[in-house]
Amino acid sequence: MRVKNLILILGVIVAYLGIIVYVRMSNDRTIEKRYYQVWREDYIKNQSENEQYVNAAGKNKTPFALSEAQGYGMLLAVKAGQKHLGSQTDFQKLDNYYLRHRLSNSNLMSWRQENKKGSLQDNPVSASDGDMMIAQALLEADKVWPGHGYKAQAFKLISDIKKLESNRSAKIITVGNWANKKSHFYNVMRTSDVMPEAFEEFYQATGDHSWIEIKSQMLTYLQQLSSQHKTGLVPDFAWISRQKQASPAKANDVATKDDGNYSANACRVPMLLAASNDKEANNIVKKMLKFFKQKEEISSGFTLSGKPLYPYESASFSAPIFVAASKYQNEGYGTLVEHEKYIFSRPLPANNYYDATLIVLAALNTNELTGLEK
């Protein structure tokens, strides 16, 4: 009798735990689906019956497209496909737009398309972050929807990234094809181009070991930057010397007054590093998380010494931290995960493509949405 009662009790416990797991998974899936659908409604725009692009302008504004935005859109479409929240057609339409807006005699995408005289016109140069995300999305899409030629597309794009968007002596990805040997910016590294997971996938797909060398060297540069301050924060851009030493850019060296600060590009670094299991990448991101854990509020940017740049929070900074902290929450970062969950308690912004996209990417990249309202 006691044995039967014990079996009955154990059965009840197992059933209860199963219900808890099911409810958690169901709640997470509901939130993911809602965010992805709202994001598509706000930011996906039809170029033609068979082409779609991510409108980086947002709702009710003159639309424009970016290769970065298209890369994010394609990555989100693949992740949605993996979770049965999206279709191969969704991805194909985004891919078709990329194919139509490649640079002449190249597989690189025009970095920006602006509305001129009623149609989107291509800017004649590339941006490497967008190209790398598109290549990564194509490789993943081939796994989710095999037989559509995505892997062959990825090979061509990866080849052109190496040929036209890399500095082989410094072993870095340059900021774009325009930053060539003749350019003053040939030795500039954008810290958010340090994508160890992408480099690993490029190597696995192509067998080209130079991608491992690029990963290793760019992480070394990032470590050099991280070690210069107790915060572990890295700048948006860095200069790479002939001696292979990295130093932060100064204000307006490359793009904005915050080139040398932890700002709109570097904010993606925690998420990009956490995506890899590389030991050096993990060490760099954990040092950053220790700094963020000490802050009552994550500002929209910091100086490298840790001084807030602006007196408000921003999802584009919080979402990557949320993803990274979720990976390491059992190592003491659980409170940071809970703190940054605020990004899911507000409506998805309809006129801030960057914030909205990183929120949805965070939602599809973690399993830490339990407890949020549906």
From TrEMBL:
Keywords: Carbohydrate metabolism, Glycosidase, Hydrolase, Membrane, Polysaccharide degradation, Signal, Transmembrane, Transmembrane helix
Gene3D superfamilies in alphabetical order: 1.50.10.10
Record EC number: 3.2.1.-
A GO term, aspect molecular function: hydrolase activity, hydrolyzing O-glycosyl compounds
Pfam families, per the entry: Glyco_hydro_8
Enzyme's top EC category: hydrolase
Catalytic machinery residues: 129 (nucleophile)
Transmembrane segments: 6-25
InterPro entries: 6-hairpin_glycosidase_sf, 6hp_glycosidase-like_sf, Glyco_hydro_8, Glyco_hydro_8_CS
GO biological process per UniProt: polysaccharide catabolic process
Family named by the database record: Belongs to the glycosyl hydrolase 8 (cellulase D) family.
Protein name: Glucanase
